[in-house]
Design a protein that fits this description.
It is a single chain. By secondary structure, this protein is mainly α. 66% of the residues lie in helices and 0% in strands. It is built from four helices and no strands. The radius of gyration is 16 Å and the shape is elongated. The termini are far apart.
């Protein structure tokens, strides 16, 4: 594969990823409901510097729900939380 072909393929992939992200951003802008854990994960992504805005963080966790339904629970349990990121879980109520 020539360098130019590789660059064109990368550009196509980038355009495809931007369209996917725009779809999830539109869901968030249209009032898509997120779980408390998903909102906490979006805050954590922002605080860790993985995303530039909370809106993008919400779109990322919403996308992750479609890609792997267990991702948000795994990510929530993976990192320590600040008080504004903590969520009361079913385990906390017992």
């Amino acid at each position: 594969m020539e360098k130019q072909e590789a660059l064109e393929q990368l550009e196509q992939i980038r355009n495809h990823q931007e369209k996917i992200m725009e779809y999830y951003l539109n869901l968030i802008r249209d009032g898509e409901e997120l779980t408390p854990i998903e909102i906490s994960n979006a805050k954590k992504l922002l605080r860790m510097g993985y995303v530039k805005t909370l809106e993008i963080g919400k779109a990322v966790v919403r996308r992750n729900r479609d890609v792997n339904p267990n991702w948000n629970n795994w990510f929530y349990n993976r990192f320590a939380r600040r008080p504004d990121e903590e969520v009361e879980t079913a385990e906390d109520t017992f």
